[in-house]
Each structure stands twice: as structure tokens, then as C-alpha cells.
Specification:
By secondary structure, the chain is mostly beta strands. It folds into 3 domains: about 100 residues, Sandwich (Immunoglobulin-like), CATH 2.60.40.10; about 120 residues, Immunoglobulins (Immunoglobulin-like, Sandwich); about 130 residues, Mog1/PsbP, alpha/beta/alpha sandwich (Protein Transport Mog1p, Chain A), CATH 3.40.1000. The protein has 1 helix and 26 strands. The chain has a 7-stranded antiparallel β-sheet with strand order 19-20-21-25-24-23-22, with helices on one face. β19 and β20 form a beta hairpin. The longest helix has 11 residues. The protein is globular. About 0% of the residues have low confidence.
Length: about 375
């Protein structure tokens, strides 16, 4: 059963708290039972000295009956933690789970429990080249009393829960029926981000049709530990090295995944403009995802979005961000903006949501050089 724990706290210090630019900006899990909550929660807004704020954490009651205690503290840059009161006591949630919380009417009177048996692929901290696709597979045993499965069962899918998405989809149907005591391999197609770093993607089993509403199930006796993939994208010079494209005509640079191909076309029809430069980026196998950067001087590229209304700011330039769902054509993310006399149209075509992470990484690296 999912629930939200909320504490009311007053800032009795001398400095502001907040989400952006403040030293104290988050609530973090400290001790006890995490109850399937994220480890870090950003504060919902600014909290001047003397003001009161409600701090909320979404939690999930374990499937195993018992008493559970979850402790949380405010986090300050540099690693310091503060609780409440003169004794610095953690905030906490304490709940009691009784046996009825394990009932799932979609399968009758069921107890749901999953046991993690091991990583079939991609052990923790495996090096994955930037932008590379990979498949993470966990081996899990059904230690409950009812079958799981994709058709007609209450427990039927694996869903993204927390951390770095990496996955191509938010939800993965179970591959078939999993009777009690049986073992199943659960796989998720993922893409490594472009930027170097350590990435962790957490996933949990999803139960629907429960009298307490939809809920999530992790592994272990309490059902609170998510399955996860943890990878390392090496820094430049390693297997995750990225490539850089620099436009001398339009004075911008960006980084894209090592191994991807690039095509630059400067001989396309201009429609009244000049200096066309159309750049195409794609994986070495071709196909999707596919990114195009069209730049033209004097007039915008003829795409149908020339007169869009800006809805965000990109490098101090008003820009349009447009999402086109899949239909006869693949899904697209489109950015349109103008810098001086230069008009830009940037498009990503993709078949899965995970590909947008690569697009986000590329656009994060995009910068004007002159």
C-alpha cells in the first residue's frame, strides 16, 4: 500500500532553505526502513527563517507484517545532516503492517513476495560506453502464494521506480506466467547516458487491482528493496569517450556518443535563406534514434514550426520545445529557436522514451562558441 508521510517543520535558523542555490535544499533518508521511498527529496520551495514548511515523502508499506521505522534528516551541502529540536532528532515515520496488507484480490487471497537471485547481465559498476545500448537482466524467484503473469494476474509488470531512467520504457510486461516457487529472468533494454559518471536505475514489480490501490513490490522479506542497474560511463579517454562537433558557420559545439555517425549537408534548398548547414547524428547501425540540427541564415527552415510560441529559454534565447507523439511517423522532440540572424530547428526521432536521455545529454553539451 502506498502512502504519503508529511511532517510540519519550522526554520528556526538564520539562513534561507530552498531547492536551488541554497546550502540546505533536501531531505534525505537517514536510518531504519526506507519503505521504498527515494533516498533524497528536494524541498518544495524557499523557506525563510521563521517560516513553516510541510515535508512529504511517498512511501510503500512492506508486504511482510511487522512494525517499521523510517528516519529522515535535512541535508546541508558538505555532508552535514540536521534533525529537529536541540537534540538533533531525526524526523521519522513508524507504521504497523498487518497480514491483510498482503491480500491481492486480482488473484484471490494472495501473499506477494519476490526473492532476488542474482544479476544475469551487467554486474554492478560495469563500464558501459556513452550512448551504448545494453540489456539488464535480473533473476527473481516468486516466493509468494499466487502466480504472476502478463495476462489476467494482479502482479504483471516491472516498472521504473527511482534514480536514472536509462530504460527505454517506463513499464515492462512480465515475459510469461510465473507460478509460486518458479524463477523468472526480468530484462530491461537500457541506454548509457552520454556524460561520464555513475548511474543507478531502480525498478520494482507492479501490483494492480489491490483493495488498497496499485502498489509496488521489491525483493526481500519486506518487499521494499528495488531491483537496480548500476553502471559507470567512463570519462574521456576511456571506452565511453564522446565526440565533438563544432560548427564554424553557426559557432556552436556539442558532444555526441562515441561510435555514432555524423553527416553534414550544406547543399540543401534554402527557401530564401543562406548558409544552410544540416547535421544528422545517428547510431552506427543507422535507424533510430536519429537527431537532426538544421541551421539557416535569414529565414527559418521550412518545417511548419516557424511561428511557434516560445515556451522556455535556451542559452538566454527564447525557444520552443514541442513533443509529437508517435503515429504514422516515430515520436519526435523538436526545439526551435533563433540567435541573431541564425535560425535553428533541432529534431530527435525515436521509438522509445529511453532515447530522449541521449538527446538531453547532447543538448546539455550544446553551447555557442562565438
Amino acid at each position: 500500500m502506498a502512502f504519503v508521510k508529511t511532517w510540519r517543520v519550522r526554520n528556526d535558523g538564520t539562513c534561507m532553505w530552498g531547492t536551488t542555490g541554497y546550502a540546505l535544499h533536501s531531505l534525505v533518508f537517514y536510518h531504519g526502513d526506507r519503505l521504498s521511498a527515494p533516498t533524497t527529496i528536494s524541498l518544495p520551495g524557499e523557506v525563510p527563517p521563521g517560516n513553516i514548511i510541510d515535508l512529504s515523502v511517498s512511501m510503500i508499506a512492506p508486504t511482510q507484517p511487522g512494525t517499521y521505522h523510517s528516519e529522515w534528516m535535512l541535508s546541508i551541502d558538505g555532508g552535514s545532516l540536521i534533525g529537529v529540536g536541540a537534540s538533533n532528532i531525526p524526523l521519522y515515520a513508524q507504521i504497523v503492517v498487518n497480514g491483510s496488507s498482503n491480500v491481492g484480490p486480482g488473484d484471490g487471497m494472495c501473499v506477494y513476495r519476490a526473492q532476488f537471485l542474482g544479476d544475469v547481465t551487467i554486474p554492478d559498476n560495469t563500464n558501459i560506453a556513452a550512448g551504448s545500448s545494453f540489456v539488464k537482466t535480473w533473476r527473481v524467484r516468486n516466493d509468494g502464494t499466487c502466480s504472476w503473469g502478463s495476462n489476467g494476474y494482479a502482479l504483471r509488470s516491472l516498472v521504473f521506480y527511482n534514480g536514472d531512467h536509462l530504460g527505454m520504457f517506463n513499464s515492462i510486461a512480465l515475459p510469461g506466467e510465473v507460478p509460486p516457487g518458479s524463477v523468472v529472468d526480468l530484462s530491461v533494454n537500457m541506454i548509457a547516458p552520454q556524460n561520464p559518471g555513475v548511474y543507478r536505475s531502480e525498478w520494482m514489480l507492479s501490483i494492480v487491482g489491490d483493495p488498497y490501490g496499485p502498489r509496488l513490490l521489491g525483493v526481500g522479506a519486506a518487499g521494499s528493496r528495488p531491483l537496480y542497474a548500476q553502471i559507470v560511463v567512463p570519462s574521456s579517454g576511456g571506452s565511453g569517450q564522446s565526440q565533438t562537433y563544432r560548427s564554424n558557420t553557426y559557432h556552436y559545439a556539442l558532444s555526441y556518443p562515441a561510435g555514432w555517425t555524423i553527416q553534414v549537408n550544406t547543399s540543401v534548398p534554402t527557401g530564401g535563406g543562406s548558409n544552410p548547414e544540416y547535421v544528422t547524428l545517428m547510431p552506427p547501425t543507422g535507424g533510430l534514434p536519429r537527431m537532426e540540427i538544421e541551421a539557416l541564415t535569414g529565414v527559418p527552415p521550412m518545417t511548419g514550426f516557424e511561428n511557434c510560441v516560445p515556451n522556455f529559454v535556451f542559452h538566454n534565447v527564447p525557444a520552443c520545445k514541442i513533443f509529437l507523439p508517435a503515429g504514422q511517423n516515430p515520436a519526435e522532440d523538436v526545439w526551435v529557436f533563433q540567435k541573431g540572424t541564425a535560425y535553428f530547428y533541432i529534431q530527435l526521432q525515436y521509438q522509445d522514451a529511453g532515447s530522449t536521455q541521449v538527446f538531453d545529454d547532447i543538448m546539455t553539451s550544446f553551447n555557442f562558441t562565438g
